[in-house]
Amino acid sequence: MIADPLLPVAPVAVDPVLVRVLMGPWAGALAFLWGLLWGSFANVVIWRLPRDQSVTRPRSRCGGCGKRIAWYDNIPIVSYLVLRGRCRACGQKISLRYLFVEVVGGILSFTLYTQLVLGPLLAGGAPQLAAWLLWFAFALALIIITYTDLDFWIIPNAVVLPLCAVGLGVAAFDPEILGVALVDAAVAAAVGYLVIAGIRWIYLKRRNIEALGLGDGKLLAMVGAFCGSSGLLWTITAGAIQGLVLSVPLLLLGRSVANRSLEEVHGDDPELGEEDPAAGVMGVRVPFGPFLALAALEFMLLRAPIRSLLAWMVGAGG
Predict the structure, then answer these.
(1) Are 289 and 176 in a shared domain?
(2) Which residue segment(s) compose the domain that 32 sits in?
(3) Would you say residue 74 lies in a domain?
(4) Roughly how many angstroms between the first and final C-alpha of the chain, as a whole number?
(5) Looking at the domain assignment, is residue 145 inside a domain?
(6) C-alpha distances out from residue 31 to 114, 143, 205, 246, 298, Å
């Protein structure tokens, strides 16, 4: 049993029917299925949003032959395995990423269900259904951001800005849902954006290069709105450390962290500034969004121990 550490579990009166449903043998499976379905939708968003296409219509088509994908060929996990990762019509290979994103969506939904619904019920408390749905939406947004940044060096406003507003709105409506007070959420969101904007401004003034994009600042604003100051601190620190640890070995091997170079995607954009031999890591620009997203996911899943660690570090430093 894993209880949500942010919301104290106190004995409360819960509808017995609701308890049986949420603790039934199929509840966890349905939570996993919920994540699979939204993971499949995340794949659509990752592909279409950076291309300025609607995420709801038309129906999905094969990128090779253009044939519309039938519903039975679009079932999460099952269709990929049955078709052996290839289009039924033309046989073109389907990226393993589609399966990976679906599975990750399912795992995250199930894990959050365990923390926020099943755990409190087993302890005699109330299920945190709203928190489960909100944190899952946050996690799904981080997955989308990771791949749009890797593929297109874009952190979509259509993803981060609504989630930032939701986080602040929830903090204003009921701080206990996400465990973050409104003042903390608002200050963290503002600081997150200003940190990136400040670093970007300094680099543009001193070296005429764009060290970081403002999309990273908007991502940190979203993290601050959902996770507060402790989540923001962890995301910036752990994101930077993990970015270095994971990027340097790849770059030493001559491989890029991103799937395509920044210039290949956006061309010779004068707003990027002049090329600089010290830009990024080892002279190569590295997308920062995926590492920030990874750190934010870590905080979401391990809020209590991370907050304890940060409190200990602050106390030890003082």
Answers:
(1) yes
(2) 1-127
(3) yes
(4) 35
(5) no
(6) 9, 18, 49, 31, 20
- Among residues 144, 153, 142, which one has the least CA distance to residue 45? 144
Dump pLDDT digits (tens) for 32-78.
999 999 999 999 999 999 988 889 888 888 877 878 888 888 889 99
Amino acid at 119: G
**Whole-structure pTM value:** 0.86
233 and 104 in a common domain: no
- Looking at the fold, whether 110 and 185 belong to one and the same domain comes out as no
Q: Would you state the pLDDT for residue 268?
A: 43
Distance CA 198, CA 217 (A): 10
Query: Is the same domain home to 63 and 194?
Result: no
- Short-list 171, 192, 210, CA closest to 292: 192
The tokens describing 267, both together, are: 């061309």
CA 203 to chain centre: 27
Is the confidence at residue 285, as pLDDT, over 80? no
146 near 100, Cβ under 8 Å?
Answer: no
